[in-house]
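Per your request, structure below.
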C-alpha cells in the first residue's frame, strides 16, 4: 500500500487544518496519524479501524482532532481544530493489517506502512 499525505501548512494558534491521506493498493486494517516534532520521538495522534467503527485518540488531541475515513475513496482525514503551537510536527499517515484495539492502538511500531509526511506549523 502507498500512502500520500496532503493538507498541511502554517496556521496561527486556534486555527484549523484538515489533513488527507490518499491510499493506493489494497488497503486493509487500521489507518493512523502519527506525528514527529523536531527533536522528539514519534507520537501517536489518532487511528481508525477498517470499518470506521472505532477510533482512538491521544489524550493531547482528544476533543480537538477528528479522524475519519472513506473506504470507497481509499482516503483518511484528520480534521484539526483549536490548533496549538505544540501540535507543530510532521504528520504521517500509517497503516497496519494487524488487529488494533484499545490495548495497542498507541503503539507506533504496529504501523508498518508510512507516507512521506506533511508539515503542520502552528504559530503563537
Amino acid at each position: 500500500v502507498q500512502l500520500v499525505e496532503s493538507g498541511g501548512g502554517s496556521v496561527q494558534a486556534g486555527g484549523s487544518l484538515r489533513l488527507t491521506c490518499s491510499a493506493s493498493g489494497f488497503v486493509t486494517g487500521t489507518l493512523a496519524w502519527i506525528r514527529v516534532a523536531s527533536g522528539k520521538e514519534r507520537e501517536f495522534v489518532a487511528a481508525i479501524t477498517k470499518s470506521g467503527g472505532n477510533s482512538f485518540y491521544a489524550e493531547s488531541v482528544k476533543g480537538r482532532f477528528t479522524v475519519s475515513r472513506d473506504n470507497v475513496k481509499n482516503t483518511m482525514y484528520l480534521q484539526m481544530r483549536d490548533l496549538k503551537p505544540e501540535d507543530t510536527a510532521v504528520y504521517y499517515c500509517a497503516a497496519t493489517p494487524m488487529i488494533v484495539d484499545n490495548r495497542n492502538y498507541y503503539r507506533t511500531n504496529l504501523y508498518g506502512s508510512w507516507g512521506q509526511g506533511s508539515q503542520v506549523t502552528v504559530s503563537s
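The mean pLDDT is 94.

Regards,
D.
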